[in-house]
Amino acid sequence: MAIARKNALDHPGLPVSEATAADYFALLKPRVMSLVVFTAFVGLVAAPVTINPLMAIIAIAAIAIGAGAAGALNMWYDADIDILMARTASRPIPQGRIEPRQALAFGLVLAVLSVLTLGVLVNWLSAAMLAFTIFFYAVIYTMWLKRLTPQNIVIGGAAGAFPPMIGWAAAMGSISVESFLLFLIIFLWTPPHFWALALYKSGEYGRAGIPMMPNVAGPASTRRQIFTYALIVALVGVLPFALGYVGELYGAAAAVLGTGFVIASASVLAAPRDDPSMKAEKSLFGFSILYLFGIFAAYLADAVLQRAIVAIGG
After folding, report:
1. Can you tell me the mean pLDDT for 275-295?
2. Looking at residue 152, which CATH number applies to its domain?
3. What is the mean pLDDT of residues 77-85?
4. Whether residue 3 has pLDDT greater than 50
5. How far is CA 127 from each of CA 79, 120, 208, rounded to the nearest angstrom?
6. 73 and 188 inside one domain
7. Chain centroid to CA 262: how far?
8. By the 8 A CB rule, do 43 and 36 touch?
9. Which of 79, 82, 77, 96 is nearest to 205 (CA)?
């Protein structure tokens, strides 16, 4: 789908930038960053090695800055469509508080800083993965997939799934099947999470010309795909326990959360098509966030508990 970029934000009629620290912080997408930081922290702590606390702080800070850089670059490129959508129109660039070129420079500086910091002070494998993640989100997803295909979030979701692997690599200097499973949980969780949002925001995506699944395949097909993905997520979510990487605490939490995810998705599948409140879709979107935080919190708690047991037994 060819979508012309309307770079109206570069027109001379825009007000002079009066950016504050809060505006630049908003460019970092702090809510997304919080998820990135948390999942990266889980990957770092769950790795079967003791990492120097200072190195851990540096690694998490660098990953957070890298995530913020990707968010800033995303907002720079998407400013023309952000202004068309109610949920994004209040961002600093559409509101004229930050000029596009300022956001671009800010994002590029943070990207370079985060990658070099992680590489020089921690290790270059994690730095290379962080660099690839920033590139994937800013270029592959934002500049290409998002406006091209309804599979945008399916493929692009990889960018948000890399942080636990980066955290693991920062601690270990390598990656493993265990860290890949953490990646896989987020990767498979992303489509149903965002498609739930897209169902009740389809009008906004349509006005912006973004080919989200409900706008291209229709709501009915999207609901079926959400349910299918939810089943897969629930099954993959218990794999770390089934393969013996974590214990019963995580296994129980993953089973309960996965069941809840499937039930919420089934509610979307069975919801009346003429319900203007979109209650089921909104509930699934909210629960999906709880699911991801919950399952990673359980993974973290289980890893800490297993280490405590080993330490006491030793």
Report:
1. 94
2. 1.10.357.140
3. 95
4. no
5. 28, 9, 34
6. no
7. 20
8. no
9. 82
Q: Which amino acid is at 14?
A: L
Contact 195, 214 (CB under 8 A): yes
pTM score over 0.85 = yes
Contact indicator for 76, 104 with CB cutoff of 8 Å: yes
Nearest CA to 306 out of 254, 252, 255, 244 is that of 244
d(CA 295, CA 276): 31
Give per-residue pLDDT as tens, 204-257.
999 999 999 999 999 999 999 999 999 999 999 999 999 999 999 999 999 999
3-state secondary structure (DSSP) of residue 248 = helix
Q: CA 307 from chain center: how many Å? A: 28
- The residue assigned the tokens 């505006």 is 23
End-to-end distance of the chain based on CA atoms, in angstroms? 61
Residue 146 belongs to what domain range? 20-174
Whether 118 and 52 have beta carbons less than 8 Å apart is answered as no
- Report the domain count for the chain: 2
What does the pLDDT average to over 65-80?
97
Instruction: Using the 3D structure, point to which of 145, 174, 203 is the last residue of a domain.
Output: 174
